[in-house]
Amino acid sequence: VQLQASGGGLVQAGGSLRLSCVASGSFPTNALMGWYRHTPGQQRELVARITSGGTTTYGDSVEDRCTISRDNRKNTVYLEMNSLKPEDTAVYYCRLYSPGRYNYWGQGTQVTVSS
């Protein structure tokens, strides 16, 4: 399984970005997909995750500012981020997993929010 993330970049505070992640290879259709982020010196944290049925969970730091969605036909997960803050600056990673069974990470995409 390979995960290809895209959509990161430099944006001013208050701006928006849309991240995309395409999964390729063979995996169960009921796999969870999600976005995590990492900044130096911090643990990787959940941004948002979504089940194949569309149930979503958001991390506390981004709730109400992000929307995760998924197109199962395209094996793609999206993350729409609004009202971005400098503290949202991080490398964002796509994840495809089933707890205790399998776990795949994408290569990460840098998001930088300038003040």
Low-confidence stretches: none
Helix-strand pattern, N to C? Answer: EEEEEEEEEEE
Label the overall shape.
globular
Overall residue-averaged pLDDT value: 95
Beta content = over 45%
Helix count, per DSSP? Answer: 0
Radius of gyration: 13 Å
The level of helicity is: under 10%
Largest sheet features = 7 strands, mixed
Taking the alpha carbons of the first and last residues, their distance comes to: 37 Å
Tally of extended strands? 11
| Class based on secondary structure composition and strand pairing | mainly beta
Summarize this structure as a short list of keywords or feature phrases.
mainly beta, 7-stranded mixed β-sheet, 4-stranded antiparallel β-sheet, 56% strand
Describe the structure.
- The structure is a single chain.
- This protein is 0% helix and 56% strand.
- With 115 residues, the protein is mainly β.
- The mean pLDDT is 95.
Chart the SSEs and their pairings.
Layout: E1 2-6, E2 9-12, E3 17-24, E4 32-38, E5 45-50, E6 56-58, E7 66-71, E8 76-81, E9 90-98, E10 102-105, E11 109-114
Parallel strand pairs: 2-11
Antiparallel strand pairs: 1-3, 3-8, 4-5, 4-9, 5-6, 7-8, 9-10, 9-11
